[in-house]
Design a protein that fits this description.
about 375 residues; alpha/beta; Aspartate Aminotransferase, domain 1; Aspartate Aminotransferase, domain 2; seven-stranded mixed β-sheet; four-stranded antiparallel β-sheet; about 35% helix; about 15% strand; globular; binds pyridoxal-5'-phosphate
Length: about 375
Amino acid sequence: MSTPLSQNAAPQAGAPQARSAIFTVSPYVGGESKVAGANRVIKLSSNEGAFGPPPGAIKAMAALATQLHRYPDGGSSALRAAIGQHFGLDPARIVCGNGSDELIALLIQSYGGPGSELIMSAHGFLMYEISGKLAGMTVRKVPERNLTADIDAMLAAVGPATRLVFLANPNNPTGSLVPHADIVRLRAGLPSDVLLVLDAAYAEYVDDANYDPGIGLVDAGSNTVMTRTFSKIFGLGGARLGWAYAPAPIIDVLNRARGPFNVNATAVAAIAALAEPGWVAHNRAHNQQARAALTARLSQAGLKVYPSHGNFILVDFGTAARADAADTHLRARGVIVRAMAAYDLARCLRITIGTDEECGLAAEAVEDFLGHG
Ligand SMILES: *Cc1c(COP(=O)(O)O)cnc(C)c1O
């Protein structure tokens, strides 16, 4: 079992008191990785890449071990150059972060704050809400349609206090995708002083002609940012590496707001990952095949599986109690998936697409549960 996080330990009178905004959030609970008593654990709870880190990244990390007394490259210049070359972007318009989670928080701290509002979709990525509340913002969660962000409803939710709009595309945990034309419409309908953040954490997995991660929209104005991560298809979640592509004035703000060494020396792993021959194509192809197979198998078993553009599927068990029972049953077989109550989807479980073998074991465990339930 993992060591539990301390919770609900109220400070005594006379002791230091944290800002009240702190207590509007619950500690983020990540995907679990251990099951008591299980010999082998199939961890499909955090949307990590299916095949471990790229071999070149493992080598780079081994070489790094002898250099750990050195401070890292504070401006991430080598990583920004590698990203710029790989994606055809100006490295001066990139800021790297300790995961894209850090960049999300820095954008909110810089452009939001007490008295202002953040807009996101009802089942959007939780870090927007957590970081927004920590900054003292009002977080407006806009109802979705078919578990997909409703662009018109999001536009209708904008008011004079709105400072930031966040949209993960594809979205985690729903897997849904908003076509580029609708993203363009969203940007066009927002006031020019509202910052639109397009979180493209799963961009590399997408194969849809109507998809665009948003580079063109960033370039077209002064008010749109795209965030990306090395945690998903590049298989480097433990290295904590993300990046933002933004207009120059926003880059300047992020460089002021970030810590001097916010990205640590593990940046070498990302540089190696970008250079790994065939990595993205292989992972994308596997994901498409395995996602389709798992979707078909669980649908065949009678469950509703939402169509996904990411490396995970959202599976609907009808009620929270049944999803809970399925979670417990899977866990007893060493299969860890993600419970969805925090996303207001307690009737669902999210299953990451692992290797074919892992997906097969997960499907078997679900089928076994349905046979007993
Ligand atoms: C996983 C995820 C991230 C966070 O990525 P890190 O770079 O590991 O912080 C951001 N956005 C979405 C939608 C994600 O699913």
